[in-house]
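ARCHIVE CARD
Drawer: 12
Card no.: 0347
Subject: one protein chain, sequence and derived structure
Cross-reference: see card 0346
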Amino acid sequence: MSKTAPHLPWLLSLILLWGCSDLVDPPDASSSIEGVVTHALDVATDDGPVRGSTLGGLNVFKGIPYAAPPTGSRRWAPPARPTRWTQPLAATAFGPPCPQLREEVLHLNEDCLRLNVWAPAAAAKPRAVLVWIHGGGYVEGASSEAWYDAAQLAEREDLVVVSFNYRLGLLGFLALPQLTAPDGGTGNWGLRDQIAALDWVRRNIAAFGGDPKRVMIAGESAGAVSVTTLLAATPAQGLFQRAAIQSGTYRPVLEKEQPVGAFPSAYFVGLVSAIVLECTEGDIAACLRAKPPVQVLGTQLQLTPVTEMGLSLWPTLPVVDGVVLKGRPLARVLAGSGDVPVLVGANDNEASFVLASMGVVGNPGDFGRYVDALGASARKAQLTALYQPSVVGEVAAADALGTDLSFACPAQRLATASATVGTAPAYLYRFARALPNGPLAPLGVAHGTDIVYLFGRFDAVATTPTPQDLTLSWQLQSAWGAMARTGSPIPAWLPYSPGGTFITWNTPATTEATWRGGRCASLDAWGLLPP
């Protein structure tokens, strides 16, 4: 979720069930499960028939429209149902990514509200559904990225897996009084897309062999923030029954009219954007909708990034608009919203991939300068004593602080909130296995590492897994699959309670009781973990 480096949506994994008599050997993870396309397959949705492919033991559908193209008057409006079609629609290729600025290519196609389905071909009974939400700081990313290929996860765990694109950046989160929806909400266009995709799942997933009453939403980084936000979003209630929050937090939302901490108000971001786009008089909404997407996206570069809790990100974020979001996510969860079983956790070195870009390279004083960059100068002495850069090194200390602030301490707080409010359990985890080789290995257990293990796509990050990594990948898939099916992961993973135990995913996995060395309590006491 950093502005200083492209999102690195990599990596995933799970646990060795020590002491569990029902543990079985993992399948041969080195063999291909994708097979060969054997025949086309038609499925009827309530918008029209789609034609996918049978690939080995899976039925695969890609690029299914779940909403009409958000163009013209539909830009900055709630997603609408697509125009119904009668002939089978080819669903064998991913839809285009939603418009975004990326280093490697500029994506500009607004007809991007598409989803994908991987479903086991043999359908004895309805299967649990896992809906994956991609990351990218709400400004980039797509469900078509190679590390999100769900074939292995769907087949091994006998799940129906769905992924989708949603509007990003200013096209997904621009809020202005002139861009108010008929229901009175504004700004949450990308979040409304996510809700529309979940509603599509509710209406249609049974036709693909899925059970609409056993839907688990999961995501990493901005995808995990999206999961947290969906727990709080009023229209999303009832559309899912479990959730997995992987390296996400509850903080990145904007209030409509008031700044909060380092975050500006959504209307301020909208006003600056309208000024840059020269839409300040007359029909402002029409003026904005007439601008080409490349010009709208270019405006993002003139916004001031936000740095808070160790994150640096663009202020194009979900909005507390009183309609879709009636309060901040953590407050809503504490009030009982999203009372479903939740997995939540963080990786050991979440901050490692941004440290060099922030000047943390190992020179004396780097840790102190990093504290200044995070806006925590007033607590520099206490933080230096707590993280001890003179003992562990400047880079390691900064990595630990950034990881604590951005993801690890918020994960514990979310788990505590979910565990102490309502009736559903929460399960806290720490992911501690670094990739064994390849270009990302020097970053340690970096932001996104868990994704590779969850989907088993080591090839997507040029990594050759060891047998231990393949076993860990299978175990992670097993736990997430069990959670999707039953609302409870593997037996060795106990529900979290304040001060209780959590799982550390490594080779082998362990149960621990002290989260991040107990540092979160100090950070909270010093006012560095705002709600």
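Annotation on reverse: The radius of gyration is 22 Å. Confidence is low (pLDDT under 50) at residues 1-35.
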